[in-house]
Amino acid sequence: MAAPLSKDTPNFEGVWNLNRKLSNDPDKIFELQGVPWVVRKILNYASLTLNISQAISSANSKPESLDTPSCNNVSEASVTTLHIKQTVNPGGFDSEGYYPINGEEKEYSLPIFGDISMRLRYVNTSEISDEFLRQKLSEGSPSKTVIDEIAHNKTKGWDARVIWGFELIDGHRYLTRNVITTKDEKAVKSRLVYDFHC
To answer: What is each CA distance from 116 to 47, 68, 125, 195, in whole angstroms?
Structure first.
């Protein structure tokens, strides 16, 4: 299902299912990131769900609430932290984490990717260098704001940049994650498109 207009940065709360028909095949990215062939084949057919809740927090306090969202209406308050539960079925590659959107680098350990450092921040769509992507995200995001995620895996030597936002696809709005991964001067791009479940 397409995302309702109430879903726009900073409101990412909800349950989001990967739409494989609208998404690009991420296999080349996984290969560049050193994900084993067997795991890549499982991921190629698995369903993927993001269960996102969010909370406001000040610079010197913990978030007030990070409960798993239900299928009810959610608040549209500004977000500083995302709580993301990712479910991969089948596969056993589920993960859960808290991601403050403040530009500060944090360390994470994820089942598929191993130990990575990551930082997230809000940026205006005007800051996106890719003209085509900038236009698509500006059209689909009334707030003209997206999440800019930078990840680095020191052990495997890759870097990834992920832009989270909303795009119009065939006249409908969808949450998208545009990913570009680089390693040894090689770059691979992919777009993941998510249906809004509730």
So the answer is: 23, 24, 26, 27
